[in-house]
Amino acid sequence: MSPIIHCVRHAQGVHNLSQANHHLPDPELTPLGEEQARALGTRFPELGNIELILSSPLRRTIQTALLAFPSRDKNLQVIAWPELQEASDLVCDTGRDLVEIKAEFEDLPVDFTLVEPGWHIKQGKWAPVADRLLERAQLVRLWLSQRSEKEIVVVSHGCFLHFLTGDWVNAVNSHATDWGNAEVRSFAFAHGEDEVPALCETTESRKRRGLGPVGLTKEQQLKLQQRTLQIWIEWGVILA
User: Fold this and answer.
1) What cellular component terms from Gene Ontology apply here (predicted)?
2) Would you say the pTM of this structure is higher than 0.70?
């Protein structure tokens, strides 16, 4: 049986305070962001049963994961996974060299085994190109669907979470995401006729957000995806 995936957008980062801060490289959490991260476990008790924590290797996502799950299990580390990094190539959405980030979190329970050299160079499979991003999201879903854990936390970024979850509702706005800082949404896997794993938000998660039990159909989401990607390309959020 495939696991439940609890997707978390990182808590408030310094770059979230203003567009002027988008030039800051790999920004850290604000004091409010640190409070948001620490409160995640209290606000979302369903996170109490997680067996695997995955995080984008950017500073703000790792910080969010560490503050949200502070050594509650000595054997449960935060696993940094470059596939979860943000979609755009803005300075604030670009990570750092592996040696540098390992040095910053050296004494903390973070596993960098999956982070390959050059992960932060936005080229090739990491390029901010629509097709590459869709491929990366599909790779993540396939990998997650094959895990043996029952509940997994994924700490990522607002824009990429739309690619990952396949939910494009309200993604066209000034923030290029419908996800709030430190927001949690929970998903189960669904397999269509093509046997490609897809994520479907759980009824409980939709209820937490004040939504009805049934979301858009796959066809409706695909149309919304096409429209969103076209607008994001026009805005320069991603590339064609």
Assistant:
1) cytoplasm
2) yes
